[in-house]
Amino acid sequence: MVAETERDYTIDDDDRASEAEEERDQLAASRSLSLLSPSSLTARIILLNIAGLIILVSGILYFNQFRQGLIDARVQSLIPQAHIIAGAIAASATVDTDSILIDPDRFLDLQSGTPFGSETESRSFEFPINPERAGQILRRLISPTKTRARIYDREGLLVVDSQYLYGRGEILRFDLPPPEGVRENIFATLWHRLNTWLFSNDYPLQKEYGNENGKEFPEITAALNGASVSVVRVNEKHEIVVSVAVPIQRFRAVLGALVLSTQGGDIDEPLRGERRIILFTFLFAALVTVLLSVLLAGTIAEPIKRLAAAAERVRHGVNKRVEIPDFSARRDEIGHLSLALRDMTNALYSRIAAIENFAADVSHELKNPLTSLRSAVETLEYIKSDDQRRRLVAIIKDDVKRLDRLITDISDASRLDAELARAEAEEVDLVELLNMVIGIANETRQDDQAEIVLRIIQPAEHLERPFCVMGHDIRLGQVVRNLLDNARSFSPASSTIRVRLRRIGSEIEICVDDDGPGIRPESMDKIFDRFHTDRPEGSFGQNSGLGLSISKQIVEAHRGRIWAENRYGPGKSLDERPVLGARFIVRLKPIDSDE
What we know:
Blueprint: H1 2-36, H2 41-63, H3 66-91, H4 104-108, H5 119-122, H6 131-142, E1 148-153, E2 158-161, H7 186-198, H8 218-224, E3 229-234, E4 240-250, E5 253-261, H9 268-316, H10 333-380, H11 386-414, H12 416-422, E6 426-429, H13 430-443, E7 451-456, E8 468-471, H14 473-490, E9 496-504, E10 507-513, H15 547-557, E11 561-568, E12 579-588
Parallel strand pairs: 7-9
Antiparallel strand pairs: 1-2, 1-5, 3-4, 4-5, 6-8, 9-10, 10-12, 11-12
Helix pairs in contact: 2-9, 9-10, 10-11, 13-14, 14-15
């Protein structure tokens, strides 16, 4: 048994250790996420807008087809240019002498009757490419295009390279490397590295065309076989080089191959220019986005910040009333939030004031019976007559009953708001409620109490549930009982209390009429105040003065209204009309109301 207990403790310790480890992991994860998520609303707005802009620009730079379009356009322009140059070179192909070199073996093999100059015959003759004439043609046709041309003979040997000059007195040009002391701008270097890293390609590296390695290149071999091909490679600087190779042929006899190649930066420079434009556009758009985000955040975050600060002052405020900033003129969510906070704060202050007044009223009302009790108890010691002692004991009992009634009603009134807020509202049929409450009141009435009569007036239009409301049946029944008890306390024994239920427009009305003395004008505005009593003689101390106040609180919690007025008889003026009794009216929203 001990071993099992120790094992259970060990398992519990392991579980607690694992739970603690999980909590640490969750805390670490939340901290890492908090580092990525700024706490300021302004920073979040700026970060999200910039992130969206970065994604957009990255997509433009990554998915654009501008580079491939440039390559295709360059190929389409180089191929016809190469064919033109190759045709011009083929037309000028000759030897230094005026004779034509003829292969004797092929000449003897000619069949009789084959016309001289035919396709078969033309293939038997070789017209070598004259480097000097080809160089002159290349200089005239290549110079404006900024391309490089190379001519290879049938053996793959380099005959002419347009990068070098072959005429007399002309100077050979060589591209020299930059001086060692000259350094590139650091920003240019960083931009070049970033550009190379972001926009790298998978093109093969271009080997150097040599004097005797022509057949090592597939494009030259294809051109010597009579085909026109294009290739895309990169040089040592990772710059794109487009090359096209076409055959040089005369009478369909291939004399050599012409290779046209672009310069290293011909395609990359427009791409860099486009990316620079996109970058500058991005920087400008980012600046505008930041400014607009700050402006937007100022219209959102700053009011929220002020509202939060005011709410904090309300929470910490003790002796002074804090005003919530008024943004209701904005007519947006911030304005609605400001209006809601102001209403909530006003309701809070009203509730605090009501609690303070309630506490003061309770203290005042409790002091009266306590003072009476104290006086009676102190006087009891000096009373020697039994009759006076019985009278003092009766006073003490009445004060104790009054205290009990006050404490009960005070407790009921103090928990009323919380109970109404927690309880779930249900459909209440006022016809059934009134029948039940009035039936119980009539069955339990005493001989000196008035009888209660209920009258229900059905609406003219047909309604499925004309007298149903959403609320709490117990509390609504309490309202009716309080009104009936109040009417009975003022009504003569032989009179009748009339209760009427009817529809008035979009409201349900409950009207309670009595035949008592009515309500005095000076008490009309105070009749629903806590602890206010205006009872006839002989009934002092029998009521707490909270019944009508609780009734008003319950009716207003059901989005209704309650008020009191006097019933008057006929007369020429209001002052001359006799008061026939008091009338209490309750108006509630029916369940079929749109409000």
